[in-house]
């Protein structure tokens, strides 16, 4: 594969996503790969993770079940050579089925769900696997431009063990009609957008319970240096 | 061997708080790390680091997320997993700029020591709404010998000061991050 096919990340400045204009660096980043290559991120122990932390349909119940379509989202976290990464911290947060975030500054006029917070976490197992039960998030409007809506998505934060294995991203759902109107999704090079879209998995779907989606996460260094 | 393509980066967005920094923001969910990199009985010199993240118009950014990663007072990176009951040195911390009145950040830690020819420093990972990929920078200290540090030596001399905290009282430092402008902070490409 040629170099450009590895260039999957969005640029810092992407003007259609207006908030990048005043918040992106204007000077080139300083390459320091050799000086930071041994730097680690912390490992997280099992005692930090609660039993229901990866089940968003249960971890915030007050008086009943959260409303919406129950789904299962699972996958493997691996490096660029396909090696599964164990003990990686995967954290997610999302809107509820009506497209409303619990966040206090959120002003979208859609109902909160008393039984749904929308936050979860898990450590990958020895095969690098993670799995969440949650509610399919709704689309929501935002202020970027007139009639701007975010496609359905789940926010992911991933903390591996090497410094370069840190990633924040968003997972999307196949066939969303909002893809072509969303500058955050569009900020990613065309060929790499599919990497943000979870695959529907009929064979993992749990009968009478939940549709299943697969979302694998590949971590690696960010550098734009073309050669090893 | 052909490498797999990485998962592309996306912005952390404005609403990360209840997932990543729940306790700091008062949400009904646990947090696994916070703005203290040390436990109740730290070794070494305890210090406070405060600062802001300024946008291209010089306004403090109230929806940034900052992570600190550093060595301890002997220059060691923690190698055992973090656990709930940890009471010494964690070496990793997280804080959002949405709870301090002036959109600042505040970390409590110990002065790190650095080995292998580097000057003492803290690694910083920066996320925010409007940032499509996170940024790395470093905090160095004004009261340390920084002159031989290999990273500082490779930085444009006129920009070195953007990587050095200011002393703002006893065991207290200020480190402001500027996204753009004359004082634009030096960010690193890994
Ligand atoms: Fe969102």
UniProtKB/TrEMBL annotation, chain A:
One of its GO terms (biological process) is 3,4-dihydroxybenzoate catabolic process. InterPro entries: Intradiol_dOase_C, Intradiol_dOase_core, Intradiol_RC_Dioxygenase, PCDO_beta_N, Protocat_dOase_b. Residues 73-101 form the Intradiol ring-cleavage dioxygenases domain. It comes from the Bacteria. Keywords: Dioxygenase, Oxidoreductase. The keyword Oxidoreductase applies. The keyword Cell membrane does not apply. GO terms for molecular function: ferric iron binding; protocatechuate 3,4-dioxygenase activity. Belongs to the intradiol ring-cleavage dioxygenase family. This is Protocatechuate 3,4-dioxygenase beta subunit. It comes from Chryseolinea serpens.
UniProtKB/TrEMBL annotation, chain B:
Pfam families: Dioxygenase_C. Keywords: Dioxygenase, Oxidoreductase. Residues 49-77 form the Intradiol ring-cleavage dioxygenases domain. It comes from the Bacteria. The keyword Oxidoreductase applies. Signal peptide: none annotated. The keyword Oxidoreductase applies. GO terms for molecular function: ferric iron binding; protocatechuate 3,4-dioxygenase activity. PANTHER family: DIOXYGENASE, PUTATIVE (AFU_ORTHOLOGUE AFUA_2G02910)-RELATED, PROTOCATECHUATE 3,4-DIOXYGENASE ALPHA CHAIN. Belongs to the intradiol ring-cleavage dioxygenase family. This is Protocatechuate 3,4-dioxygenase alpha subunit. It comes from Chryseolinea serpens.
